[in-house]
Amino acid sequence: MIRKASLLLVGALMGATAVTTLSQLPFRMSVEANAAASDTYRQLNLFGDIFERVRSDYVEVPDDAQLIENAINGMLTSLDPHSSYLSPKNFRDMQVQTRGEFGGLGIEVTMEDGLVKVVSPIDDTPAFRAGVLAGDLIAEIDGEQVQGLTLKDAVEKMRGPVGTDIIISVIREGADAPIELTITRDVIRIRSVRWREEDDVGYIRVSQFNEQTMDGVSQAIEEITSKIDGDKLKGYIVDLRNNPGGLLDQAIAVSDAFLERGEIVSTRGRNAEETQRYNARSGDLAEGKPVIVLVNGGSASASEIVAGALQDHRRATVLGTRSFGKGSVQTIIPLGANGAIRLTTARYYTPSGVSIQAKGIVPDIESLQELPEELKGKTTETRGEAGLRGHLEAEGEEGEGSGSQAYVPADPKDDTQLNLALDLLRGKKVDSAFPPIGAKAANSAQ
To answer: Where is the composition biased (Basic and acidic residues) (predicted)?
Structure first.
């Protein structure tokens, strides 16, 4: 039985960059922490001395609670880009976001070089309709410089009452000057799964992994099979491009939907006894029909779990460009009335035992999008996890190299990757990687 995973859309609206979270755990001291030398704790006196000096001598009376919160957050963010402190308000906001409904603009963001960087706009949201693109750097919010603000401060400034306007100034690669965009705040109701029939092919777009995702995939397959006769149905395209991730249990469930058996993903913490393995249960909702998974440089975390599981088990052909490379697991640890901490506690591994941290999923078939004239000569790539300051290092000898092209055209007719997938499923084009054949994943259960 799959343990219920909880909390945080990977890089949900105006949060940290993509993370995958496990179920809430009570705070516990590790063996190492209990055994730490006593003078380690004596060094905490230094913090107390500085705190008292700031309280007594700073030019203005500081907010004690804010000082402590910033100190805690500084400690956590120094570990890696995905660990942080969540104030009670932010913790409540995060819980709302995982339900798939929240207020705001509709963008996933992180902080890069002192500016807010757009990981990707969420489909059919105010930011998406206003033309915000993945990779945009937000330099000003309502005329105020972002430089010098923390990510949390910038997020607070971008939030506001539904129906009010916000003006953001974005720096876009290749643009001669910052671009001003006016966006009307709205309630963001995320429909994480959309689908349609492409004549004889079922197309399933998963934009993120929230609490409704697996139900959406099940509904998509059910509706597609009801509209396309079984003999006519050529297969499915599962589009995970620019999907920043989300809930671990949903990624496992979506992978399970296409697998009959075998390991889906494993997570490994500091100690060997913390290793957890998640296995598929019998029952392939797609009934063995061919599957092509689309990924790109904006596909991160939970979406990489799905792509990696189906790729390793030769259940699907992965097509597109190298994924983001976010292969760490964050656990939400509640602190009672004091909010929670989001702490990186493990790495996750594909069924063949490979960590994609700072490497990404390499597609079986690489396909670059053809760019419109206005984007030619301009950067349309993400730097990936390997480009984030302070990221966990990659394992193995292959080195680092995540991130790639993240452009997806709005018109399906111009979508090079989608049209290649359709042609492969219909037999109009051939490739040695489709259908996937060969040895089964090393950890497959027989």
So the answer is: 375-394
In this structure, are 206 and 247 located in the same domain?
Answer: yes
Do 286 and 353 have their domain in common? yes
Mean pLDDT for 95-123 is 80
Residue 321 Cα distances to 102, 348, 355, 380, angstroms = 31, 21, 18, 12
Confidence of residue 168 (pLDDT cuts 50, 70, 90): very high
114 domain residue, yes or no: yes
Identify the pLDDT of residue 190: 72
Report d(CA 128, CA 444) in Å as an integer: 40
- Over the Cα atoms of the chain, what is R_g? 22
- Whether residue 243 is found in the same domain as residue 387: yes
> Mean pLDDT over residues 221-225, rounded?
97
Catalytically annotated residue among 326, 355, 359, 404: 326
**DSSP label at residue 285:** T
Q: Of 149, 164, 189, which marks where a domain is finished?
A: 189
Residue at 100: amino acid letter: G
Clarify whether 429 is annotated catalytic: no
CA dihedral (89, 91, 96, 97) positive or negative: positive
Number of H-type helices and E-type strands within the chain: 11, 20
Contact 325, 357 (CB under 8 A): yes
Given the residues 83, 266, 299, 301, the one annotated as active site: 301
In whole angstroms, what is the distance from residue 356 CA to residue 243 CA?
Answer: 16
- Is position 301 annotated as part of the catalytic site? yes
Type of residue found at 63: D
How far apart are the C-alpha atoms of 34 and 219, rounded to whole Å? Answer: 49
Q: Which domain holds residue 267?
A: 193-327+345-426
E strands in 269-311: 276-279, 291-295
Q: Which has more confidence, 283 or 274?
A: 283
Q: Give Cα separations from 426 to 3, 221, 232, 341, 421 (angstroms).
A: 38, 19, 10, 48, 9
* Of 5, 423, 364, 418, residue with least CA distance to 234: 423
**% of the chain exceeding 70 in pLDDT:** 88
Indicate if 157 belongs to the active site: no
